[in-house]
Amino acid sequence: MLLLRRIVHLAVLAVMLYTPVFKPLPFLKNGVVALVTAASVALGGLAALAVSTSSSIPSSLPPSLLASAFVVFCHMYHREILMDIDDTEGDEAGQILTLPRLFGKPLALLLGGGLVAVGTAVSAWVVGVQHGLRLSSLRLLQNGGVRGGAEKIAAALTGVVGGRMVGATAAWLAPVAVCAAGVSVCAYDWGVVWRRGFRHEDVSKGIAWCLLAMIVMMLLMGTGSSA
Q1: Which of 92, 76, 84 is nearest to 108 (CA)?
Q2: pLDDT digits over 210-227, tens only?
Q3: What is the pLDDT of residue 169?
Q4: Which residue has the higher pLDDT, 52 or 145?
Q5: pLDDT at position 163, please?
């Protein structure tokens, strides 16, 4: 319960101080919004964990839940950067200093894409661990798994979930889908938003696409943990 209170107090304090303190500061402005959103994921996850296990709320965030909150933080920070890019003219009129105004739209977009890449890597790693996938399975294929015949190939492409064996398709599809979602966000940012000159309609679609990719990652991470 103490952990829940700390998270709630931190989120409330951040919201109260957002306009007078954090909004004029480019990095903190975006980070506070992302942090509050990530905190809501942590709160919901802790509550669901306590209910599902019929136990008390843990004193610290479980690694998988912490990773989920971090992924949400990265994607929401990216979303905030896109929104600042879309509202550059209004921020200039209001003398609000944002990352696009401070570094330019291309560099701000690169920063957001970098956060998405980091969040995607963390999400893929968590999903892979949840499905029992091992890097050694890839090394087995590379170092002679094919020469070893069908049995070695099957072993290399198989994960363990809850003590039972699952096929390659079921085991590897989730982390591959996570990576595809993250790559699609970065590809749209740089291939459409940037190349077309940061048009309003393109940035708006990028904001929606970022949220959709984040939801996909959260669903895949949740499915892996429930398996």
Answers
A1: 84
A2: 999 999 988 888 755 544
A3: 52
A4: 52
A5: 41
Beta bridge partners of 166: 159
Provide the pLDDT for residue 94: 86
b/e code 127-145 from CB counts within 10 Å (16+ = b): bbbbbbbeeebeebeeeeb
- The phi, psi pair for 141, rounded to 5°, reads -65, -40
Number of structural domains the chain divides into = 1
Q: Report d(CA 106, CA 197) in Å as an integer.
A: 9
Distance CA 127, CA 73 (A): 17
> Which residues 6+ apart lie within 8 Å of 24 measured at CB?
96, 97
Residue 155 structure tokens: 């072993």
Distance CA 98, CA 148 (A): 57
Domain with 82, as residue range(s), is: 2-226
| pTM exceeds 0.90 | no
